[in-house]
Amino acid sequence: MLTTTMPLVSLALWTAVAAGEPVGRFGEPELVAYFLGALVVRQVTGSWLVWEMNMDIKSGALSQRLLKPIHPLIGYSAENLAAMPFRALLTVPVIVVMLFYGSAAFPHDPLLIAVFLVSLLGAWLINFFTMALIGSLAFHIESSASVFQVWLMGFMILSGYLVPLELFPPWVRTLSDVLPFRYTLAFSVETAIGLLDAKRALFELGVQWAYVAATAVAALAAFRHGVRRFSAFGA
Question: Whole-model pTM?
């Protein structure tokens, strides 16, 4: 959880920049709402599956999961989700501050609220299946953690985690719209603080769930193919 607090650093930097005048349509209150929203979304949609899969594959512990009557990815997902109530509880003070600073901008349209809630599930699923896909590379290479670092770099820049995507040059914003990173964080945050209208939010929700389907298919195929090569040692 402590590794997901980078939005607080960005908040301090960007509120200092916006102290004199707004940056785009982001004044100090909007920046506070945005980065605290980014912190909350990252806390409740993050996944750490890559490290677990690397460890289980290399140690042979995966063989124990393969003997169970449920798919290993279902077991991994249950373990990840079990931590979410505690993570969500720790975000309550952050949400209170967000309400104080950004309540005027928060959507009151039930449709947008529903889109936001569904987008949180979509963001978690994209993160989880992407981690499963990258983790499955450990069947073929010494460690897939280095591949994850490449993904993480793209996430940091193009998800809106460090900088609101609106503040990037147009070509970067266009790139972010067609890559999955935006739909793991910025889409949910922008919906929560009222930066998207209902039509745009519904369109982006469709794009997000298309990525959910694509990453799920890719992750399941990569895991199935990798298991054929799996040999357990010392398990």
Answer: 0.89
